[in-house]
Amino acid sequence: MTTQSRILIKGGKVVNVDFSEMTDVYIEDGVISAVGSDLQVAAGTRVIDATDRLMLPGGIDTHTHMELSFMGTTAVDDFHTGTKAAVAGGTTVILDFVIPQKGTTADPKVCCDYSLHMAVTWWDDTVWLLCHVSLRTNQNLKFFLENWDAMSSGLKRTRTTQVVISARFRSRVVFGEPVAAGLGTDGTNYWHKDWAHAAGFVMGPPLRPDSSNPRYLMDLLANDDLSVTGTDNCTFSVCQKALGKDDFTKIPNGVNGNEDRMSVIWEKGVHSGKMDENRFVAVTSTNAAKIFNLYPRKGRIAKGSDADLVIWDPEATRVISAKTHQQAVDYNIFEGMLCHGLPVVTIARGKVVYENGQLFTKPVMGRYIPWKPFLNLCITELISGKREPYTGEIIFIAPKRS
Ligand SMILES: [Zn+2]
């Protein structure tokens, strides 16, 4: 099944950021070669029936830390299990934050495409110069400011989101990224009677203890105050978390999320009625593809785009559990959450990598995707929209006499 190089997906609804359309999608050699009806296809093409289902661009998780060495131990989900879990959840690209370690390689392990953010671990004149050059060449800079009440990647703080909202209101080029943990759960778990349960939620910055915070963040995501979604996926099993059993500052920071991000956002965002399917596509893939200069190669179902897509059943349900998830970590912060809307088939680079609960992944299926500098068109579009403002005549309506 995984060697199939031509696939026709018929009878479903293609959902892009700007419109949805009942149409078919033809994939050849890793690329979407046609979108339309009555497509001519080569003999031997596999046909997948997508009746009553949606075809969405594969998800882009903007924030993961696979196999990160941190606080004396190493995250249990490596680039292999982490990307396997990603495709099982409908995500076909991860953008991993790396703190480079000699000898670490992702290429032989990945099951879907990936790219990298580089962590700045010190600050001096050279680093300042590099950041300056990055901005001059329109590379983007991502801030993860744990101790500042300023913009934070992995938003969980109400005050931080206010900074992003007011900056965007003043037309500043700022994008906010809530993480799945902040959208699907909250910091009340730190008071759980079971130490292992509480430790499982320890991450930096921490989840807010206000149980209304997830709903608030989802509102902001739905109305375009926040733009993209990541997970900060950095998984340590319970025995690793136990390094801090007598001192919480020694608990390795990190939670799961990259397998469940799409389902959590569909459940809390779309199923709840806060956003439509097109906005879901915006916040789970398209906006990320635009910001990181991967669009329209990624984040869109169109002729010429990479064949990264997910066939989504909006009616199907599942209950999230560590017993059934694909991640290597031995607990799940969303344990017991009922989710409507599931990936049925995930296609990455034109190959079926997940179908009806079964994985068909192989290491080396994914590739490193470099970011191109100098393209701000998409970012301008994201901030101000495509249209010029109307400057023509307006009729006059005389005020009514009282
Ligand atoms: Zn992070």
UniProtKB/TrEMBL annotation:
Top-rank taxon, per record: Eukaryota
GO cellular component: cytosol
Gene3D superfamilies: Metal-dependent hydrolases, Urease, subunit C, domain 1
GO molecular function (one): dihydropyrimidinase activity
Domain Amidohydrolase-related: 219-353
Family per record: Belongs to the metallo-dependent hydrolases superfamily. Hydantoinase/dihydropyrimidinase family.
Protein name stated in the entry: Dihydropyrimidinase
